[in-house]
Fold this protein.
Amino acid sequence: MAVSIADRLDSLSGLFAAGLAPSGTKDPFGQRRAAIGLIQELIGWDLDFDLANGLALAASNQPVPTPTETQAACLDFITGRMRSYLIEVEGFRYDVVDAVLAVQQRNPAGVSRAVRALSERVSQPDWSTILPAYARCVRITREFKEQFIIHPDQFVETAEKELFDAVMKATEAPRKTGSVDEFFNVFIPMIPVINKFFDAVLVMAENPAVRSNRLGLLQKVAALAADVADFSKLEGF
């Protein structure tokens, strides 16, 4: 398995470095097959493996220069094959696959686990209450590049304090990186608190300090899924 993975990474990295990446339907060196084989092996063995690190290691042993942008293009190529495999072969929904790949594309086994778990979650009856609660936190904060600092001593409403306590509890809970189930385990109990916050609080308050405090709270909620998936790519977001 180790030799097989190394061989495929070496072939893909070297051919991209030499300017021989596939174009259109032309793939004389079988790079699509190599990428699919790499993906299937890592998923089949459920082996956590960082493709970007693997490509960087393979690049360091090439007889030709392999700049970081070439490695990124190779990773994008592998990601494209992974997307096709999960949608066309495994039969998963395109939006679920895209949501997970946006965050976890470097680890095919992690992608596979997350896609399966998220596919199960979106089919549940309570999904219509889960996604909107998370989406409200993201929509109102995503236009801001600044990361707002939370000052608990400046809370005005009880709902702010309750959301802060819930966010801190969720943030401090032990979770495995990329785990869909463990994200929802900490997020779902927060939903009543999130809904209460939006009912009781005007997020875009006139007072700049109050407004930034509230935006900071919602940024914290949105960040809980940062290593899991980009839920904005899901249907109904």
